[in-house]
Prior knowledge:
heterodimer, A: 3 domains, B: mainly alpha, 3 domains, two-stranded antiparallel sheet
Amino acid sequence: MLSALLQIFSSLKLTVILLSASMVLIFFGTIDQVEYGIWHTQKLYFESFVVAWQYPAVWPAGEQLTWLRIPMFGGYTIGALMLINLTVAYSRRFSLKAAKLGLYAIHLGLMLLIVSELLTDLLAVESQMTVPEGGRANYSQTIRANELVLIDRSDNEFDRVHTIPAQDLKPGRTLDVPDTTLHARVLHFYPNAQLVQAQGSRNPANRGVAAKMGVTAIPQAPDYSEKAINTATAYIEILEGDTSLGVWLLSNVLDDRFPAQTVQADQGEYEIALRFQRYYHPFEIELLDFAHDKYPGTEIPFNFSSKIITHHPDPAKKQQALIYMNHPLRYEGLTFYQASFSPDETATVLQVVRNPGWLLPYFSVLLMGLGMTYQFGLHFSKYLKKRKTA
Amino acid sequence: MKKIIYSLAALLVLLVLGRYLRPAAQDSGYDLAGFAELPVQVGGRIKPLDSVARNTLLVLAARQKVETLDGQTLSPIEWFLDLTMRPERADTHPVFKIEFPDDLGLEGLAQPGKRHYSFNDLRPHFETINQQFREIDPEPKKRDAYQRQIAELNNGLSLYHRVMHSLHPIGDPQRLDQLADEYRSYLSLLQPAMAELRKQQAGEEYNAELVKNFLGYGEDYLRLSQTAHLRVIPPPAPVDPMDDWLNLGDELLNVIQTGQLSPYAMSYASLTMAYRAGDAQTFNKTLTQVKERVAADFPDDIGRVHFERLFNGYKPFAIAIELYILVFLFVCISWLRWPQALGNAAFWTLCLAFALHTFGLAARMYIQDRPPVTNLYSSAVFVGWGAVLLGAFLERFNRNGVGAAMAALVGFATLIIAHHLAMTGDTLEMMRAVLDSNFWLATHVVVITLGYSAMFFAGALAIAFTFLGILRRGFDKSAARSLAGMVYGITCFAALFSLVGTILGGIWADQSWGRFWGWDPKENGALMIVIMCAITLHARWGGLVRERGIMALAILGNIVTAWSWFGTNLLGVGLHSYGFTDSGFLWMCAFALSQLLCIALALLPLRFWRSQFALSKS
Lengths: 390, 618
């Protein structure tokens, strides 16, 4: 029984089946990007165990065929099975032969690549930092995630930010606001919504902008396209012990442009907001100059660059750098890339990536490249020798 | 017999070469070549007027010549001279290609069998065309055939207008007869008019007539500066290639500040007047002065511009296309008769075509100062080049014609694709910032494109295997084994190049935006090729498939490669746009279907196969 199982798991037939399955997965995971955008498709297809492709309604005869679904294994399943296939096959058949060294290197590299892709899924954090020319920033944010924050600004030196990630905001739940005696009860949470002014209609909120201006939220379907920003919105009740302090309408569109909403608690005053998730860094980045050059007489850009200086509590880590296309800055475990700029070209937008496993693909790639060159080189020289003798 | 075959083959090759290399038909007396060499800055780079003329004509007429109403054939630069200097004549040349004129609903326009229309033909319909254009889908990828035609026509008319007014102000043609005098009068008005304007501002009495004349010029030139398409006026020497050149309107307005008109503007005016007067002598004399000035102002760059003009005239890819057809014919006939002589002729013709193909590629690299692949057009040229290189190698070792025939097939097909991709205009366009890296263009892009070459070549050999196996009795076991070995070897090669290329792409992505892998359509396409190779190789090693199975997989590789190369470009423009209406989509489907058919043939039961290879198996 076990040996039969081992037989299956070490077979080349399984390899070919898994490769074919991955090809099908990638194909559908590519065309579905038209429907769901890259980011969401990646979650659906490549960072999942199973997925079903659905016949798009906009295709020919879409209305009759939308029932058509093709179920398939997701990236995690195929990746795991490939790892098992490789491990079992090599542990059963391994023998140290010069003729096979290249194959070992290729497949070891492949295993490393699968593992590194998994690590990236799990550990990598991407966010964006906007810095105005002459200004500084000490945080980056991501438009893909939101957070509920209560900010205590009573200290002159610094603010205390109490944070609850938006994925914890499930309707009906009551959550402790960290390091305070307050609790937050979630009445409603909408991943995407439209805010409208509707005086007189029933409004769950009784404090802040909603109460003052009669603003209410209408839930919307989330938009997954590449550049779309979803208006995450929530009705949150804040409790101190058992006493309700009120219900606020919070939304990531109600940002710095609007007056802050505040909570009056016994302990003091807090600003309350639902905003894009922020990552604070123990240093500041100052933008000295942003440049955007185009080819003469065209709108085709040939260069974007940000000249920056880092301000770190440790003076030895102060550093000046020019970040431009294909030339990122690696600093304090983070990597800064030139990503975008404000429409008036006075502020730069840097992509900030923390990926502890970023070096792994390089090792894997080195192994695979060397392995392939070795193996095919060996084949080719054999072929040439055969030709000579023939 | 051999000698006769060789001479016949050589004669055919010479016929092809002769058609392209014969000198221009008639000598008009004007130094057209000299005019065609004049530099202009457009699309961010400096190129000869010849390229502008050709690319504009390609966009408008989808060809590089004009047939006038009186039956003359004009070269692109002759047409450009008419357009910019004798607009009243240019307006009668049929240069607007309209594929389906009946569908436009423009009353009285369509004439049976006529696909090229002149500006004058279209003149009564401007209002309607513009109206229709405003009503169509603003997203180009979502337009249907009718809407695309309207958009092309509308954009074509605007391009025509803008290129026409690159060398002279907007107004009636008679104005061009005194163009140099107009500029001189404008210049002489400049000082007095400024003085009068200062008086006006100070509230003093001033010469209203003079001011009005001057402002009239100013208004005209402002309009010109917004219209003129070409930047023909270089900044004063020494000139940096990244400096902004000015269009004629900007230069004329600039005079108000500098007080001096660029000699280039004056020369173009004199050229215009001489051309209109039919005075070839003055035209050529003025042109000589301009050329000397250009040579003095651009000692380092002008060589490249001149070379581009020459290169435009050589058309190496067009010759190569015809030679590839010859190679294919030679091989096909060689399988029936005179295998050795025709086989040799095919091989040497292939080498000649490859040399031309290589020359074209190298010339583009020199002009652009870039690695060979910079856009879809050049990738098509390069895919063909790589496949022909592989094929020539195979043919060199196994003189059986298969390598040569399939090399010719892929070379021909890819150059035809390139030819159609060139219809959008300049194929030597500048690179966007993220792509502006000669290192990555030279490594990742070149390696991955060579991977495409190998995939297509392996697929073509597999198709050859299928057809030979089914049709040719003489295709025996050893021939089959040798061909299958080639397909296997080239698939290994494709696997190596696709994998290394994909990996290099990952490293580039990691360097540019911190993501080794982002699952975007192009990356996924590349990965699918790698996986396709892996499937073929593992299936062979595992004994899951025999010769014919490998052939079927190699042909499937053609579809996967075409998808990666072109299919992914159809996607990805916004949400819910699958590019169904794109003509590329139809071609993609047709290609996939043809390949599926070949796969079906490869898997046809052996009793339908006529070859000895099949007999030995069954």
